[in-house]
Amino acid sequence: MHDKTLTELAAGLQAGEFSSRELCQAALERIEHLDGELNSFITVTAEQALANADAADRAREAGDAGPLAGLPLALKDIFCTQGVRTSCGSKMLDDFVSPYDATVVEKLRQAGAVNLGKTNMDEFAMGSSNENSFYGPVKNPWDLSAVPGGSSGGSAAAVAAGLVPAALGTDTGGSIRQPAAFCGITGLKPTYGRVSRYGMVAYASSLDQGGPLARNAADCALLLETIAGQDVRDSTSVARVVPDYTADLDTSLSGLKIGLPKEYFGDGLDPEVETAVREAIKVYESLGAKVCEVSLPHTHLAIPAYYVIAPAEASSNLSRYDGVRFGHRCDDPTDLEDLYKRTRAEGFGEEVKRRILIGTHTLSEGFFDAYYLKAQQVRRLIRQDFLDAFDEVDVLMGPTAPTPAFDLGAQKDPVSMYLQDIYTIAVNLAGIPGISVPAGFAGNRPVGLQVLAPHFAEAQLLGVAHQFQQATDWHLKRPAFGKETA
Amino acid sequence: MMQWETVIGLEVHVQLATQSKIFSGASTAFGAEPNTQACAVDLGMPGVLPVLNENAVAMAVKFGLAVDADIPETSLFERKNYFYPDLPKGYQTSQMAQPIVGPGKVEITLDDGSTRSVRIHHAHLEEDAGKSLHEDYHGMTGIDLNRSGTPLLEIVSEPDMRSAKEAVAYIKALHAIVTYLGISDGNMAEGSMRCDVNVSVRPKGQAAFGTRAEIKNVNSFRFVEKAIAFEVERQVELIEDGGEVIQETRLFDPERDETRGMRTKEEANDYRYFPCPDLLPVTLDSAYVDHQRARMPELPSEKRHRFENQLGLSAYDAGVLASSRAMAEYFEAVKETCDDAKQAANWVQGELSANLNRESLEIGNSPVTAEQLGGLIRRVMDDTISGKAAKQVFQALWDGEADTADAIIEARGLKQVTDTDAIEGMIDQVIADSPVQVTQYREADETKRGKMIGYFVGQVMKASRGTANPQQVNSLLKQKLDDA
Questions:
Q1: A360 — contact with chain B (CB < 8 Å)?
Q2: In this predicted model, what pLDDT tens digit does every residue of B381-428 receive, in sequence order?
Q3: Share of chain B above pLDDT 90, in %
Q4: Taking CA atoms, what residue in A is nearest to B25?
Q5: Residue B267 has pLDDT above 60, yes or no
Q6: Is A315 a catalytic residue?
Q7: Phi-psi category of A348—alpha, beta or left, where left has phi over 0 and alpha has psi -120 to 50?
Q8: Which of A31-45, A438-452, B135-149 has the lowest mean pLDDT?
Q9: pLDDT grade for B484, boundaries at 50, 70 and 90
Q10: Where are the alpha helices (DSSP H) in B349-433?
Q11: Residue B40: its chain A contacts at CB < 8 A?
């Protein structure tokens, strides 16, 4: 059962082959058996999940089942869940129980989905390996000595290990796509503004976007259909009709114009990753697509611009963690300044502190123009690169990450870690959607193919990914880890 | 002795009268139990997002139109970052580079009736912080976040004022504008208008400004005057003693009528302003601005001109009556009831204002309603009662004796007797009772008679218990005494 997709499980529930309680019970047992080693969950809400599964079973009997009724899911621990700890992977919020539900959480609940728990992540979504979590690193189910990617590493590992059929993550610079690639699953970052950010703990507000991680593109479509749409509580969510993503998956690829950004195939790209990606593109050619090379000339500026804008926003977004109203507070503060200093020194991890310091610096008087304003100019150039490219081609393709999953502890300095996001980060700066689909292996570690489309072209993106998965079986491969466990 | 000139600029924070907060749906009502009017957004909970209150935008635009300001097509919210326990998010959402209201001007009227113009640099929207409560917590601080997120319009003037009186006139003019517009209750005691006063001095004739001190949170007209007076004296003394004014923030202590240094600007925060990524730029097209313009009420200056030109009031009366929305509305309601602008103006500025002042009441809390006063004036104008009796009736209305002037006139029997037969009867009786005085009168010449008639008038009025019409009594008496 743990191998099945959301779509298959939905059919099984509908046909009465098993109940939601049986399904969720099995998943919870699998988590119980396997997650000690994997560490993909921070909080498992078993009791609540089974109650919700029962409710879904009753609703189905009453003929009142929502589109995701009874399907188990997991949420990255960045989404606020009423009455449940929402830690964001930080000591700062270790004891924080959210008083409200994020909009996407509310939507999933209304659709009948059963949340099994909150998945591990890099603290405040800052990281590319999941090693920056207060709750310890997550392991990659394909190779327990490797990282699962980050920051949605817990969600990706949980799906890859068959603990849940799908999970939600967030992507600020690649945090859905890169772990999806490292864990051999499918992960979609929607267009900025497509999915409400209300109740998603903010890292970099102008870049953050929630999205699904699942076994295939069709399941991502099913989830996106549920979570997308304008939200009156998020002014940056966009008033556009949510298309029927699942209905549009079978569009033919004949005549599809694929652009390969030459900057995505340059120095630093692992040869095995490149081989896998080029093979995948051949598959597209065989399906009738036309391929050409394009250029995104400002790609080399994406990481520098991102590491000005994201930390700037983060330094402000994380100011609320001051020990006054919620979250960690230091013991026996002598005065206000002591309260602030020790609370934040104790509550935040190294990477978070580093980015707060960078952001505080770049926003400071005398540096603002040189850093923040310049980075915003670069951001516009990067966005224009994509718009220009999409005048020529329908979608862009390349590797999701320059290497397969690296070993735990392998990336010693922050900058080499930042370079992990070289192919994903510009996408957030431009606000366009991107998806990572399994496209082979480098050794025993999965490789992801990244597909990018114009703003709000998720339907096309999902269709392009789905067609590939109709022609290949990379997305059907499962790691040996947990294979013997029911 | 060196002649000094004072230079004053003001930052006035006006609390806008929206039902809900500027970025959340929580209520803005004053005086609730601490932290009962703060939702997840106001508390700065993880994951929450602001949504701009459209009413706050409309109110800011109306203010802009009232002061002839530019309304830029695009304005922007920015974050002003600093740590304070009553600032839940660690930043205040405000406007800096692109405020919603551009340069404008306000006409102020001084006590001598002269007017002058004060330029507005800009006005911007921002959210209020909560309140830190230092008493009653045994050395700890209590935080009340009810006020957190309350919409403020910060109105920043140019340094155009040259005296405390001008500064007060300016604040009064702003007070009148915002209350006329209905965008604020203008209640200074509840903090609906709070002023930061920038004061500097310079030798008369010098073009360059002196170094200024900013006095924070001066919350009444009187305190503004006192704070400026103290500050000017302090700065002048400092300079004349060879010292130098430093740029700093000072706090006014109303207990001692003095200002004290808080912190110097050098030590002040670097607020690290940057555009708030959670809010879209505010775009106001000309159709929107025109729509708001069409819904503007009559403003103080327009009302003043109408009172003067259409109602025929003196410039002074028109100025006083138009100075506040409450006063103007009261006056107009009185005028509506009695149909005489001059009488209405006299009563509102005379008897009513005297009583209000004596009991320190605002006109909005007057125990005599405009309709009651209008009804009273009508009875004076149609000769039902004398002017003297009218004062009695007014007092009775003030004391709440009855609901209408008519009821009081009836109950007290104050109706003037204008029936000639009745008055003649009383006159005949008085003449019959006063043979000596009658003889003396008749023997006196014309000039003396004029004085002596007062005795008879008094007697008749007394007999009528004040209800006889004095003019009538006078002329009838003359006829009877002279004709005999």
A1: yes
A2: 988 888 888 999 999 999 999 999 999 998 888 887 777 788 888 888
A3: 67
A4: A233
A5: no
A6: no
A7: beta
A8: B135-149
A9: low
A10: 353-358, 370-381, 387-398, 405-412, 420-433
A11: 99-100
For A360, half-sphere exposure in the C-beta direction (CA atoms, 13 angstrom radius) is 16
Do the Cβ atoms of A340 and B83 come within 8 Å?
yes
A96: nearest CA in chain B?
B46
- Nearest-by-CA chain A residue for B89: A320
Tell me whether the omega of the peptide bond preceding residue A151 falls within 30 degrees of 0, making it cis: yes
Q: Is the dihedral of CA A49, A54, A57, A58 positive or negative?
A: negative
Q: Is A129 a catalytic residue?
A: no
Across chain B, mean pLDDT equals 91
Task: Return d(Cα A32, Cα B203) in angstroms, integer.
Answer: 81
Q: Which residues contact A419 (CB under 8 A, 6 or more apart)?
A: A268, A303, A402
User: Starting from the edge strand earliest in sequence, which strands make up the sheet with A72-76, in order?
Assistant: A41-44, A114-119, A72-76, A166-170, A210-214, A186-189, A434-442, A445-452, A395-399, A257-261, A290-294
The residue ranking higher by pLDDT, B419 or A350, is A350
Crossing angle (nearest 10°) for helices B446-463 and B435-443: 150
Tokens of B430: 């008085």
Which residue reads 């006159």 in tokens?
Answer: B427
Q: Cα torsion for B43, B44, B46, B51, to the nearest 10°?
A: 110
- Contact criterion met (CB < 8 Å) for A319 and B89: yes
Band of residue B371 on the pLDDT scale cut at 50, 70, 90: very high
- Residue A229 region by backbone torsions, left for phi larger than 0, else alpha for psi between -120 and 50, else beta: left
Class assignment of domain B420-483?
A: mainly alpha
List of residues 6+ apart from B213 with CB closer than 8 A: B198, B199, B200, B231, B235, B245, B246, B247, B248, B249, B250, B259
Q: What does each C-alpha distance from B112 to A165, B9, B169, B222, B357 come to in angstroms?
A: 81, 22, 11, 18, 21
Separation of alpha carbons A73 and A118, rounded Å: 9
Contact of A1 with A23, CB cutoff 8 Å: yes
Q: What are the residue ranges spanned by the domains of chain B?
A: 4-290, 298-412, 420-483
A168 contact residues in B (CB cutoff 8 A): none
Cα torsion angle, A92, A95, A98, A99, sign? negative
- Nearest-neighbour CA in chain A from B44: distance (Å): 7
3-state secondary structure of B131: strand
Relative to beta strand B193-203, strand B4-15 is antiparallel
At A32-89, the pLDDT tens digits run: 999 999 999 999 999 999 999 999 999 999 999 999 999 999 999 999 999 999 999 9
Confidence category of residue A329, pLDDT binned at 50, 70, 90: very high
**What mean pLDDT do residues A364-380 have?**
96
* Length, in residues, of chain A: 486
Q: Measure the CA–CA gap between A62 and A80, rounded to whole angstroms.
A: 30
Please identify among residues 39-98 of chain B the ones whose CB lies closer than 8 Å to any CB of chain A.
Answer: 40, 43-52, 79, 81, 83, 85, 88-91
In this structure, the number of other CB atoms found within 10 A of the CB of residue A87 comes to: 27
Whether residue B85 and residue A336 make contact (CB cut-off 8 A), yes or no, is yes
Residue B71 pLDDT exceeds 90: yes
Dihedral sign, Cα of residue B15, residue B16, residue B19, residue B22: negative
Interface with chain B: mutation pick from A87, A104, A233, highest number of B CBs within 10 Å: A233
Residue B456 and residue B171: Cα distance in Å, rounded?
56
- Is A235 tagged catalytic? no
pLDDT of residue B451: 81
pLDDT over threshold 60, residue A353: yes
Strands of A99-160, DSSP E = 114-119
Q: How far apart are CA A293 and CA A389, in angstroms?
A: 10
Domains of chain A: 6-250+454-476 (3.90.1300.10)
Report in angstroms the alpha-carbon separations of A3 from A9, A16, A166, B354.
10, 18, 11, 88
In terms of residues, how long is chain B?
Answer: 484
